[in-house]
Design a protein that fits this description.
Blueprint (H helix, E strand, L loop, with lengths): L2 H7 L15 E14 L23 H17 L11 E7 L2 H8 L2 H4 L4 E4 L9 E6 L4 E9 L14 E8 L2 E9 L7 H21 L4 E7 L7 H7 L1 E2 L11 E2 L2 H6 L5 E3 L2 E3 L2 E6 L5 H4 L6 E7 L20 E2 L2 E2 L9 E8 L1
Parallel strand pairs: 1-2, 7-8, 9-10
Antiparallel strand pairs: 1-17, 2-4, 3-4, 5-6, 6-7, 8-13, 10-13, 11-12, 14-17, 15-16
Length: about 350
């Protein structure tokens, strides 16, 4: 492992009973956050971004944009710090208009001081929202980036968001991150099942090429863990014991939702659309306690009081940027999620 990574990991030795016999074990955090309409104030040709212009319905001025950047950077910088002092090595994001927004986001002080970088490819979404990947170059080294297209089944259907795929190394292990924002609930169940099948096909192709590849599929799936798109389309299992084939995946969020916790709330009920799902190669060490390569440790919803409405009809819901046409100077209608990985040093 590279000396700079070892030096940084010296801050993250685990002193908990489950790792007591493992010697020096380092921890990494990876996350996902739907940024809820991170738009700049300029029109992008060919995109329906008019509501996020100064003269648009949201009166999206530079002042509001700068507040949004500040709010988002605060959350992104704090994600993962409950267990890892320098926060997340990797964070997938969705609902970002363009590379300009990501560049402005990474220039915010909490992220700039960690030298956070990003990967992004402009996609075909009608509104202009894309996925991106933020990363700390101390820990993650990207090598290849591509946008796997969402292949439409119906001729004439509106193009939608592809699957941002980034391959690189984390803690010396080869890893692929597929960042998703699957079709909305208005698009119908079949559109998301088809998204799950497409991502599964991409993931299986990567595994066939390199069975040892660690793979994370993360994003706003617009479905819960037990919905067909996730359980059958993607093939993400509820229990590690059910992850038996190299192409199987593990979904830790299934149990978290059953325990009554979620990332977005509607009519008083929590859903958990924001998920980080992992390949078999990231779970092998969990039952055997073999941490010679990156292994899943724990998954958590990142929840802070400031991210929630503190009063009124929607008390306890995620505090949005806008609601009912009113600017709330909030964060997002989704809560972020974090997964922790461990590895012997």
């Amino acid at each position: 492992m590279h000396k700079s990574i070892l030096l940084a990991l010296a801050l993250f030795f685990l002193a908990v009973p489950s790792f007591a016999q493992q010697g020096r074990v380092g921890m990494f955090s990876v996350g996902f956050y739907n940024l809820e309409n991170l738009f700049d104030t300029q029109h992008d040709e060919g995109k329906n971004d008019y509501e996020y212009l100064p003269e648009g319905t949201n009166k999206w001025t530079n002042m509001k944009y700068q507040h949004k950047l500040k709010n988002m950077s605060r959350v992104l910088a704090e994600m993962g710090t409950d267990r890892v002092r320098l926060g997340c090595a990797i964070i997938g994001v969705s609902e970002v208009e363009n590379a300009h927004c990501l560049r402005d986001l990474c220039a915010q002080e909490p992220l700039a001081k960690r030298n956070i970088k990003f990967c992004h490819i402009e996609g075909p979404d009608n509104r202009g929202v894309d996925c991106g990947l933020l990363y700390n170059p101390t820990f993650f080294k990207p090598a290849k980036v591509w946008l796997q297209p969402y292949v439409l089944k119906e001729r004439g259907a509106r193009p939608t968001r592809g699957f941002l795929t980034v391959q690189g190394t984390l803690a010396g292990d080869s890893i692929t991150v597929i960042v998703c924002h699957w079709p909305s609930r208005f698009s119908g169940k079949s559109a998301r099942v088809w998204a799950g099948e497409q991502v599964r096909h991409e993931k299986d192709s990567i595994v066939r090429a390199n069975p040892k590849m660690k793979i994370l599929v993360m994003g706003d799936m617009n479905d819960d863990p037990f919905d067909e798109s996730m359980a059958n389309g993607l093939g993400a299992r509820r229990r590690i014991a059910d992850v038996k084939a190299p192409t199987d995946m593990f979904n830790p969020w299934w149990q978290i939702l059953l325990d009554g916790r979620g990332t977005l709330r509607y009519d008083g009920k929590w859903n958990l659309f924001d998920q980080i799902v992992m390949s078999q190669s990231l779970t092998k060490g969990t039952p055997s306690k073999d941490y010679s390569s990156l292994t899943f440790y724990k998954a958590e919803i990142f929840k802070r009081d400031y991210l929630l409405q503190d009063s009124g009809r929607y008390k306890g819901n995620p505090k949005r940027t806008h609601a009912g046409g009113v600017w709330l100077d909030g964060f997002s209608d989704h809560l972020p999620v974090v997964a922790y990985l461990v590895r012997k040093l």
